## 1
Amino acid sequence: MPLEVIVHYDRAGSLCFLHDQLKRLEAEVEEASQLSSRRSKWQFMGARDAGAKEELHFIYGVSERTESDGAANLIQKLRAINYALAELGQWCAFKVALSFFTALQNDEKPNYQLDVKFQESYLKKVVELLDCKLAEGAALDKDIKTENQTISDIQSVEEVEEGELPDSHVLSGGEHVDAIMGAAVADGKVTPKVQSLIKILLNYQHTEDFRAIIFVERVVTALVLPKLFSELPSLNFIKCASLIGHNNNQEMRACQMQETIAKFRDGRITTLVATSVAEEGLDIRQCNVVIRFDLAKTVLAYIQSRGRARKPGSDYILMLERGNVMHEVFLRNARNSEDTLRKEAIERTDLSHLKDSSKLTSADMLPGSLYRVESTGAIVSLNSAVGLIHLYCSQLPSDRYSILRPEFIMERHDLPGGSTEYSCKLQLPCNAPFEKLQGPLCSSIRLAQQAVCLAACRKLHEMGVFTDMLLPEKGNGGNDEKNEQNDGDPLPGTARYREFYPEGVSDILHGEWILPLRECSTRSQTLRLYMYVVKCVNVGTSKDPFLAQCADFAVLFGNELSKEVVSTTIELFVAKTVTTKSSLFYKGALDINHTQLLSLKSFHVRLMSIVLDVDVKPATTPWDPAKAYLFVPIRDQDSAEDPTVEIDWDTLDQIVGSAAWANPLQRARPDVYLGTNERTLGGDRREYGFGKLRHNGVIHPTYGIRGAVAPFDVVKAYGLVPCFNSSESMRVGDLTPGTLVLADSCVLADGIVGRIVTAVHSGKRFYVESVRYDMNAENPFPKKEGYLGPLEYASFADYYQKKYGVHLVHKKQPLLRGRGVSYCKNLLSPRFGQSEDNNGEGKEDLDKTYYVFLPPELCLIHPLPGPLVRGAQRLPSIMKRLESMLLAAQLRSLIDYPVPIEKVLEALTAASCQETLCYERAELLGDAYLKWVVSRYLFLRYPQKHEGQLTRMRQQMVSNMMLYQCALKKGLQSYIQADRFAPSRWSAPGVPPVFDDDDDDHDHGDDDNEREDGELEGDAGSYRVLSSKTLADVVEALIGVYYVEGGEAGASHLMKWMGIQVDLEGEEMDSMNKPYAISESLTRSMDLETLERTLNLRFKNKGLLVEAMTHASRPSSGVPCYQRLEFVGDAVLDQLITTHLFFTYTDLPPGRLTDLRAAAVNNENFARVAVKHNLHLHLRHGSTALEAQIREFVKDVQDELSKPGLNSFGLGDCKAPKVLGDIVESIAGAIFIDNGCDPGCVWKALQPLLEPMVTPETLPVHPVRELQERCQQQAEGLEYRAVRTGNVATVEVFVDGVQMGSAQNPQKKMAQKIAARHALAALKEKERSEEEKKEEDKSVKYTRQTLNDLCLRRQWPMPMYRCVEEGGPAHAKRFVYAVRVNTSDRGWTDECVGEPMPSVKKAKDSAAALLLELVTKRWPPVST
C-alpha cells in the first residue's frame, strides 16, 4: 500500500474584475447567437433560394454558416478559460485562451469561415484581457511582448491543433522557482494550489527512476500544467505529458494514448497529468508517486487512483484546500467507506463457515478466504478467483478451432445426518502447466467452485505462471517492450534509429613518435620503427602501359604487426581487366634519427597531399598519435642488408628539397586558386564554382573553365607562372634538337615522357604519354564528335587565345600528348562488370581514354614522378583494408577465441561498403542459430510456461533492441565497417581530410536519421552515422562466423562474451524427457508404429510423439498439446535448413540465400510435407471444422502432386491449415527432446521427408513480387483493387489502368496471388504478340538517330525537342515530347507530338518517328 500524504494549500484570491469581464463576454455571445438564429430562419433561406449571393454575403459576412452554429462551442471555451482563471491563475488562463485563438486561426475548413470569424472576434478580446507574464524579467528577450504586440505575435505562432498549448515564454535559467512563483502568486498569475504542486514535485528532484501521475478534474488543467512545468527551470528533471480521453475538440486518439503510456512506461516521459481516464486499468509498475491535484468525486475514484502507485514505497498525495470543510468531510467518508468495503469483502469470502477445515489443509490452502502476495499486496479472493481463472484460460495460445476455458466437475457428498456437501474438480486446457486440481468440501456448489479456483490461483502463482500482481505472466521477463507501431521517433533497434559514433582506430597503430620533437622526445634519440614492404602483382592483361609502371613503397610502423594480418592478400580492382594482389612483407626493424624522421615525414606529407588532394605543408600539418605510420619510397632491387638501405633516400631528398613546392600550382588543389569547376584529384568529393585567386594577401579574379575571366598575362604578372628568359624571337630551330621550352625551363623531350606536368592555364595535372612531333599549335583544332556546326577555333593557338587569353609564343613546338592524373579511387569495391573477352575490352578501354594535347610552354614539370603517384594512389585502399584488419584482430583478442581474422572482418563489414566482404550471409546463419539456442534455453528453463509466453520471451531475447544494447556495451560500433571507402574522406597521418563549407550548406537542416549508414558528419571526419539495426546485425553475423569456425563451442563462447546467457545446467537438461503414462489403447488408436516407420525412428518416450500430434481442441486426456514442442521444433528446423543451405550454396549471394530459406522454411511447405507423408492421419484433435479443412486441403495437394515436375514450395493456389505445418515442427521438437537435444537426429529423420529441397534452379518467385518487379522495370503503374462479397474476396489487377487479371477466393491474399499470376500470364502473352507483330512488320524503325542522319545529309540544323507533358507517380512516370526541324528551304516543319512513354528517350523516339514520316512525304529523298 502506498503512503498516504495530505498537503494543504491556501484558497486563491478572487480576480473579480477578470471574472466579471469573462461573464459579460459570455452573455454577449449568447445574445448574438440568439439574434443570428432568429434571423436565419427566413432571411438565410430566402436569400439562398432567390440566388441573391451579394445579399447573403452582406448579411452573413463570409459564408452560409451563422454565428449561432459556433456560439455553443465558444461558450464552452469561455467557461473553460474562466475555470482555469479561478483554479490555476491568470497566466494559465491566458495560455488556454491563446491556444484556443491559435487553433481557430489555423482552421482551414471553408464552410466554417463565419463560425471561425465569430469566435475569433471574442477570443481576441479575451487574449488581450488576460495577457500577462509569469514574472517581470523572467522571460527571454525574444519572448517579451508589449500589450500592443500580443495579437500580432499570435498571428505568427506555429500551427497547432485546437486544444494544444503553444510554446511561448521561457523562464531564465537563473531565476529561482520560489522567487518566480512567489511573485506570481502575489499578483494572481498563479494560484497557491499550483504553487503547492510545484513544491511537491521539487521534493522528488533526486528520486531515482521517478514516475508520477497527477490526477486532475478538467481536460483544460491536464493540457496547461505540462506547459507550465516546461517553463520552470527548476523542474527540468521532469518530462511531462497529458493523458486525456475523448472530450469534444480536446481529445486523444487511442493510438496517441497508447504511445503516451508506452513512453511513460519506458521512462521517456516521467510525469503524466491525467484525467479520470487513467484512474482504472493503467498498470505501470514503475509509478511511485500519485498526486490528486483535484480531489476525487467518488470513493471508487479515490481508491482506483491510489492503486496506480504500484512501486513499493510509493506515495499517494492528496491536495486539500485549507479550511475547506467539504474536502475534509469527503476524505473522512472515503476512508470510512473503504474500511467498510474491505470488511464486507472479507466477510463475503470468509471460509470459516466451511466444514471440516482439516480438508482445507490437505488441499494445501492458506487459512482464510484470501490469497495475498506480501511483496506487492496483491490479493485474490473467493469472488475474484473464478474470473481470474477464466481470464488465464482466455489468454492461453489458441486458434479458431479450439475454445479454451476451464471445466468444473461437481461431486455431491451425502453425509450422515442428512447434510450435503460439494467438491469441485477443476480441469484446465491441455496447454496449461497442470490440468486437474481437486477442491475442498464446501457447503454449496458456488463455494466449491470458488474454493478450487482460489487454490488454482495460488498454485499458478507458486509455479510462476501468475506474476506477483496475481496477473497472468505475459512472458516478457518483467520488461515491457513496445511492440506497437511507432509513427513518431524511431526506436532503438530499428533501421531508422541512427546515431553518431567515432570511427575506431586500432591500438597497435598508436605512436607518440610521430608527434613533433618538442612533444615526445629529445633531438639525440633514435626511434625503432618496423618496415613492411608493399608488394603488388597485377593479374590480367591490359593495353594500358601505365598500369605496370607503378613504384613500390614501404610502410613504417611504430609496432610490429600480427603475422596473420600481414599475410593477408588484398585484392584491388584497378581496371576492368586487371586486378592487383597486394600484400605486406616484413623487412625488419630499423633505427631512425631525428633528421631522417623529418625527411620521411616531409616526403609522406608531400606525396599524400597530392594523392588525396589536401593542401597541407609538412611544417604546419597536425599529427595524430592515434594513427602513426609513414609511406616511404624504396629502391627497385631487393637488398638483404639493413632495411634503412632499402629506402630510396635520393628520390626522397630530391622531392622534399624541390623548389617547385613554393608555387601554389604545384601543390594540392590548384583548382581552388584558379576557380575551375572540375577537380584534378579527389574529384568525387565536391565541385567548385568560380573562385578567387589569393596571392600575397591580395584577392585577384582568375579564369574559369567555361571561359577567360581575366587575361592570362595578368595571372602571370602576379607570379603564379614563373618567369623564364626566352624571348619571343627565339625560334624552335634555334634550340638544341630534342629540347622543349616549358613555362619555366627548357628540357629534353625524352626526359619529359612519363613525368607529370601541371598546366598553368588550368591548374590540372597530366601524365605525359608522348611528344607529338607531327603536331604543333598551328594545327587545326579538332571538332567534337558529331558536331556539324561552324568551326569555333581555327587552331590550337586560336583555342588557347580565345578560351584562356593565352598568347602562345612557341607555336612551332611539338605538342605533348597527355592523360589526366585521375583522382584517388576506391579500389576495394568491384567497379567493373565481368568480361568474357579481356583483351578486346582492354583495347576498347584504352581507346576511350581521355587524351589532351598541350603546348609545352604552358606546362610545369611536377616534382613527383608519375610512377610514384600511380603507386601511391593504391596506398589509401591498401591501408584502409589493413586498418580494418587490425581492428578485427583487436576485437578477436578481446573475445579471446581462435577465429580467422578475415572471417571476423567479414562479420564487421556491411553491404553498404560494396566490397567483396559482407556480413549478410553470416548474419542469416547467426540469426537462425541464435533463435535455436534461445528457444532451447527457454523451453528447458521454463517448463511451466506455455507457447505464447515462450514466444514473447524469445522475441525479447533475440530482438534487435537487445542485440543493439549488447553491441553498445561491448563497443562494437567502433569496429564496424559500414561506409563505402572514399579516399577523399580518409585520414592519412599528417593529411587530414578537408570538408568544404559548401558541403555543410548542403547538409544544413537535414535530419540525422536521414543519413545512410557510414555517412560522415560535416567536418568531423572521425565520426559516422550508424543505424542501430546495423549493430544488431553485426552481433548476429559474429554469432554466425563463430559457429562456422568454432562450432557450438565457439558460438557459445561469443554469446557469453556478448552477455547473452543461454547456458543450461545439467539438471535442467535431464528433467525434460520425463516419460508419459500412455495407455495401450491410445497407442493403438494413433497407430504410433506406422508413424515411427514413416519417420524411420523409434521413440524412447512415446509420450512426446503423442504430445506432438495432439491439438489444443482435443479434450484433455493427461497429454498436453503440441504447442511447446512446436515452439522448439520451429527453431530447430529453421537452424538445420539454414545451415544446410549455407554450406551447400557457398557462392550464393545473401539475397538469393534468404529467398531459398524463405521457400524452404514456411508453414505452407511444411503442410504439404505432412500431407505427402500422411502425417495428418495421426493428428489428434476435436474440431469438425478443422477436419473439413484438412480434407479439402489434402484433395488440393493431391491435385498439385499429380502434375509432373511441379513443386510450389508453398506457393500453390490452396491455403494450408496452419495445424498441418505445426505438426511437422512439433515432430521435430519431439525428436529433438527425445534424443537429448541433438539436432543431428532431427535432420537425419526429417531430411528424407523434406526432399526435394528447394534449389536456386527450382526456387519459385511469388507472383505478386514478380509482377511488382516487372512493372518497376518497365515503369508501368500497378494497382490492386479488392472487394469482398460475403465470404468471397475479389481482387483485380490493373497495369497502366488496364485490367490484366482477376481472381476470387475466400482469402484476400490468396486471391491477390492468383490474380497476379493471371496478370503475368496476360502480360507475357501480350509481349509475345507484339514480338510477332514486329517480325511481320518489316518497315523501317524510325528513331532519333535516323532523324539526325537525315538532317546531316540535308545540312539542316539538329532537331529541336520540347517536353509537352510529364506526369504520373514516381514509379510510373509518363513523358510526352514534341519535335520540329528548321529546314533550309521551307523554314520550320510542323511540330509532331509523340505518344506517352515511360522514359525521355522513348518519348523522343516516338516524336521523331512521326516527324520522319512527315519529312519523307514532303521532302522525298534525292536520287543520286
## 2
Amino acid sequence: MRHKVKWWCSLSLVQHRTTVVFILFSLFPTLLGVYTQEHDINMPHQEVEFWARKIGNHIFHLSNAFALYNDIKDNFHSRDATLQENDGLQLVKEMASDVTNMMKFKVDAVNRIMNVAEEASLDKYKQDEAVDYFNAKRLNPSPDIPQEAIDDKNYRNLSLLSNSHFDGIPINESVSSVHVPTNVYAKAPDVINAIRWSGRLDRTFKSNYELDPTLSWQYFGSSTGFLRQYPASEWVMDEKDPDLYDARLRSWYIQAASSPKDMVILLDVSGSMTGLRKEIAIHVVLNILETLNENDFVNIFNFSTETTELVSCFNDSLVQANMENIGEFKKALKTIETKEIANFSKALIKAFELLQRSNSKYNKSGQGSQCNQAIMVVTDGAPDNYEKIFSTYNWPHFQVRVFTYLIGREEKKKRDLSWMACANKGYFVQVTTLAEVREQVLRYIPVMARPMVMYQEDHHHIWTGVYADIAHERHGHIVDPKQIEWLWEVREGKRQRDRTENYQKLQKLVKDSSSLTNIHALQDKWQVENFLRYGEFGLSSRSIARIKAAKMRKMRRQRLRRRDIQNFTLKPEVREKIKHEIEIMLKRRVKRDVLVLIPNRIHDYDLWKHHKRLLREQEKLEKWYEDIRMGRRGAPGLKEGYRLMTSVAVPVFDRKKTSTKTANLLGVAGTDVPIREIEKLVPPYKLGVNGYSFMVNSNGYVIYHPDLRPVHRESNAEFQDILKPNYNSVDFAEVELTDYENEARANDSELLELRKELVEQNPAERMMNVKIHLDDMKRVVQRTQKYFAQKISGTPFSLGIAMPDGYGKYKVHGQIELTREIQDRRAGDVMDHFSTGNWSLHPDWVYCEYKYDQHQEDQSPEALIKEFLSRAQKPNWKWRSTRTRPPPDPIMNQAQHKRWKPSMGSDERKDNYYCDKDLVQSLLFDARATNVYSREVKIEDKIKDKNMGSQNFGITTAFVATRSGLTRWIDNPSESSSSNGNSKERHFMKVHNRAIDEVWYKRAVDYYKEDQDAYVYSVPFDAATRDPDEVLVTATRAIFVEENEYRMAPAAVVGVTIKHRKFVDFFKNETYKCPSYPSRDSSCKKAKTCESTSLNCYLLDDNGFIIASENEDDTGKFFGTLEGTIMESLVQSEVYKKIQVFDYQAVCLDTQEKNSMASILTTPIQTLKWFANWMMGNVFWVLVKTQLYTLWDPNEAWAYAQGQWDPNAAPTDEVTYSKGPINHQSTFGEYQEMFPDEAVITEESSGEGSGKYPEEDGSGREGSGEEEIALYEGILEYEVQDYLDGIPTEDTKRTESPDVVGDFPPLELAYINKTHPRPCDKTVYLYKLQSKKLKQDGLYKPVKGKLSNCHTNGCGRPFSVQKVISTNLILVAVNSLCPCESRKVDIEPVEVEHNETTSCNRLLMQHYRKRPQSCVNYHPDEHEIKLCGGAGSLGPSSVALLTLLLAHIYNSMMQS
C-alpha cells in the first residue's frame, strides 16, 4: 500500500509539473503578443497622419503668402502669356547655322595668317639686321629687377590693359609678343630669321580682330620652337618653375603638321639596354607618345628574344591614342625589365603584319587611321640592316615609314640603323643624353609632313578636341593635360608635408605629455591618426568636417589673391599713392574693410575708380570661386575654374625654291575658340528648363555637355582643381545614361544609333528614356527626352539639343514690345518694372553686349541692361541681332567688302553692340509680371487664413526666378536683421542667381507633374558641419502656363528660404502635441509623440535626405546612413524606388607602394649619403620640370620636388626612444589596413573605401555638398566613441597615466598613403519617392510597417510613414525601443569590379568613329629628298637645360 501511495504521489507530481509546463506554454504566445501589441499600440499612426497634414497645410499657406505665388501666377495669365510649340529640328538647324558661320570666321582668320606667313617667309633680310620684337618673358620689369639685368636681358615696357574678352589678362592690341621656350636657343640664326619675317603677321592679326570681335588668341607656332601670339601679353611664370612650354607639343600644332597615323613602337629590352640607356629609351618613347592625338592609333612592343605587347590587354591591335590608353602605356613603361638578346627580325615582322592588317581595305569600323604608317625603333644598336624584311613587307610602295633612335654614343652602330630609316622614307637620330630627347623626337614630325608640304596648295585645317584652360595656357596658368600626373604628385607632396608637420608636433607632445589634456589619446589609434591628419586630438566627425571646410575657404582666398596680383599689377607710383591715402585714413581711424568704399575720402578720383574696379572684380571672383566651392556648374564653357577650348589650325609651308629638294614645314597658324563663344549661339533660354545642348566630334567624344566633369570633385580641397586623366576623351555614350541600363556599359542600341548619327554628322531626331543625376550624383530623375542634331559644316562637330518630353514641347511666349512701351506715355519708364525688391540677371546669358568691349568698363549684367534700356529710349535706337552672318565672300571687290563691313572710327567701335531682342523683351514681360515685392506691403497682410497665426517659422527671403533669367527677392525684415546682417555667408540669392539653371528650379519644374500644389524642400548636404544659424531650408514651387492638361509650359518658380533652426522648432512643436488626447494627458506625451524617448521622427525629402529631425546633426544626411534597415523596408514597401546610376567619368585612387626612409646618422658616410641625396634631389627637380618624372618611381626624390622635404636641410640626428608601457603590437601594417587610403574620404576614391567614408566637400548648397563625415564607422566596435569627443571612458579614468616615452610614434606614421589617379567606372543606387504609391482613393494614407524579430529577444521595430501634403516630404516615425541591428545604406559611388577580361574589354571598347577626311601620305617626288637624319649632338637646347640644372644647384648651394 505504501508503494502504491508513493507511486500515486509520484504520478501526481509528474502530472502537476506537466500541467504547469502546459499552462506556461499556452500563455507564452499571449505574453509575446502582449509585448508586441504593446509596441504596436505605441505607434501613433493616426497622430503621424494628423501631424503630416497639419505641417503640410501650415507651411504651404505660409510659403504661398510670403512668396506671393497667386499674385505672380495671376500676372502671367492676365498679361496674355501664351504657349508656342517648340520645333526642335528647326531650332537646332538655326543654332547650327549660327555656329557654322562663327566657325567660318575662325577658319578664314587662320587662312589669312597662313597666307601672309608664307609670303613673308620669302622676303630676304640681312643677317646682321636687328630684330625688333616684344619678348613675352621680358615685358614691364618689376622694380625689384636691377637695371643691369634689365639692360642685359632686353626688357621692354609695353602698355597692357586688362580685357574681359581675354579673361581679364592685361593685353596690348597693337602688337604681338613672342615666346621662346627655355630649351630653344633664342639667338640661333634660323630662330632669329623666323622671328624677323613673322613680324609681318601683326597687321593680319589686327585686321582679323577688327573683322571678328569674337576672336580669341591668334598665334603662329614656328617649327623652330617659338610662338608668336596676338594680342601681346606678358608670359606669367612662377619663379620656382622653369618655362618649358613648347608649342610644337601642343595638339593643335601636331594635328595640323601631319595627317593621322598608325604607329608601332619597338622598344629594345635586351640585356644591353640597362642603366642610362634604358632611361633614355623610355623617355624617347614617352616623348613620342606625347606627340600623338585622338586621331592616331598606336601600340608598343618590347622585344628581345621574343616580341610582346607592352600592355598585355592591347594584344595584336592598335589602340586609339587617347589619354586613358596613353596612361596605360606610361604605367607599363615603369615595369619593363631588360634581358636576353634582341631579335630584330621577329620585332619588325610583327610590326609590319600588324600595320598591314590595320590598313586592310575591308576595315569599315573606323578603327585605325588608314593614313600614315610608321615604325619607331628605339635601340642601342642593330646587328644588320634587315634589307630582306623591308623588301618583303614595305617595298616598292613604301607605305610604312621607319624612324630609328640610336641610344648611346657608339658611332659604329649608326650605319645599319641609319640605312633602315633612309631606305624607308624615315629619319635617323642618335640620342646620347636625356636633355636632347625632346628635340630629337620632334624631328620626325616634319618628315611625316613632307607629302603635304610638297603639294603646297593643300592646306587642310584641323579642329582639336576639347582641352582645359585656366585664363590661357600660353600664359603659364595652365597645367598641360599631359602633366596631370606631375600636378598630382605636387598635391600629394603638400599632403605629405602637412602630415610630417603634424608628426613632428606629435613627437613633441610625446616628449612633453604634460601639455596633453587626455594622455590616453596616445593609446587610441583613431585619435592618433586624426591628429596626424588634422593636427588636433579629440576631434568629432563634425569638427573634422569644419576643419576641411575652413581649409577650402583658405584655398579660395589664396586663389583670389593670386588672381588679383596677376590681373592688377599696380605701377610703383600708384602703389605709393594708395599707401599714402591708406595712412591718412588710418590716422582718421577709418576701418580697413570700408576703406575703398568711401569715395569722398579718396582725393584722387582715378585712384578711387581703380579701387572700385578692384572691389567689383574681387566680388566677381569671389562669386566665381564660390560657385566652384559649392559644386555648381560655372559660366558657359567653365567647368570648376577651367576654361574649355577647341582650336582651329592650318599648316604653313615653305615655298622657297632651292637647288636641293626639300619640303620644309614653317610652322602652324591657329586660333582658339572658347566653348563659351559657341554656347552664346545656343542660348539656353530657347531650350527651356531642363533642356540642354551638347557637341560631339567625329570620334564620338564630347566637346561640351552639361554632364562633362573634367575636374576632380573630392572633398579634400587640395585635389579639387586637378583635371581627370581622361577628361578630354569622354564619349557621348558615357554622359547619356539610358533608363534601360542595368549593367555597366550596356551599350543601349538606341543610344549608339544616336551616337552614330552624331559622328556621321547626319540630321537626327530621336526619343529616349534617360536617367539624369543631380547634386553631385545624389539625386536622380527619370525622364523621357527628345534629341535633335545637326552638323556644323566645315568642322568635324555635330550640335545636338535635348528637351524634356511633355512640358518641353512648349514654351511660354510673353513679351513687351520695347518701342511701343517707350512710345506709350501711360506706361511710364521701362525701368519701373524693376522697381520692387532686389533683382539680378543670369550672369552668363547675353542680353546686350558690346562687340568691342576692351575699352568698356567691366559691368555686371544688371548694369548693362540698365544702360541699354536707357539707350533704347533715345532716338534712332535699333535692335542689332545676335545672329551671326556668313563671312565675306573671298571674291568680293573692295566696295562690296566695305558695304559688308563698313570701317569704324574709334568712337563707333566703342559704341558697337548687339542685343538679343527676344530675350530682352521676354525679360521686360517677366519683370512686369513679378513686380510684386513691395516693401510697403507687409507680408503678413497677405495671409488669408487667420487660424495660422502670425508665426512664420523663420522665413527669411521670398523669391521668384523666371524663364528669362530674372531673379527677384525680398527679405523678411523680422528675420533679415538677425540673419543677413551678421551672416558670414553671402546672401542666398546672390549665390543662386542662375534662374532655370539652378537645381531648385529644375526640381520644382520636374515635381510639378507629381503634385501641382507641392513645394519642393531641400537643405544643404553639409548642413551638419555648418553654423546652425546659417543653415537655410529652401522651398520652391513651379508656375506653369496651361491651356489644358497636355499643353503646358513652366514660366517661373517661386520660393522661400527658411531658417533651419526655426523650421525644426516648428516641426518639434507640431509633433510633440497630442491631437487625439487632452494636452494634460501625460500618458500621451510619454508614448504618443515624437517627444517620447521611444519614438524617432524624421522629415525626409523625395530622395531620402533628412530635412528635419530631433537631432540637429542629422540634417542633410541620407536617411539610410542612420536607419539603413528601415530604408530598405521603405523600398520593399514601394515608398521609395531604388535606381542604379553609373559614372563613367569616375576616378579611383590607387595606393602606391612606399619605401621607408630611416633617419640619417651624422657620420661621414651618412653625410656623404645626404650630400648625394641632396644632389639627386636637385637633379630630380629639373627632371620633373622637364617631364622626366615618369622615368622611375620617385618614392624618395618626389618629396624634394614637391617641397615637403627641404633638399638643403642638414641631416637630422637619429632619435632614440626608451621602451614604454604602450602596447605597440599594432604595426604600421595594421594602420594601413585601418586606413587603406587617406584620400579615400572622397567622391573619387577607390571603390573599397568609398562605402566607408562619405564625401565632405564643405559645399554649402543643394547641388553639391555632402553629409557630415562619418569618418570611422567601425569605431563603435572598438568602444572608443567617447574618444572622438575627447572624453575618456570610465575604464580609462580609473587607470594610471601611462608613460608614453617609448618607441612611439614610429617613423612609419609620418608617411601618407601615396595615391595615383586612374579612370574607372563607378556605380551607385539612388532613391526616388513614389508619391502615387502612398495614395488610396485619392488621399494620402499612412504606410504601416514593422521590422519583425530583428533582435534575439524577438522584439521588432514598427514604423509609420505619411506623406506631408503639398510638399515633397514624408514624415517617418520609428519605434526605437527594440535594439535592432541596423545596416548602413550608403549612396557613395563604388567602383564597378572588373576582372582581367572585362577590364581589357573596357580599354579595347571602341565605338564607331569617322576618320578625318583629309589624308596626305604620299607624293611621287618625295624620294628625291635625301635628308634622313644624322647623329645627335649637345646642341643649344641641351646646353640650355644643363645650364638650367647647374644654375639651380648653384642657387641652392648659395642659399644653404
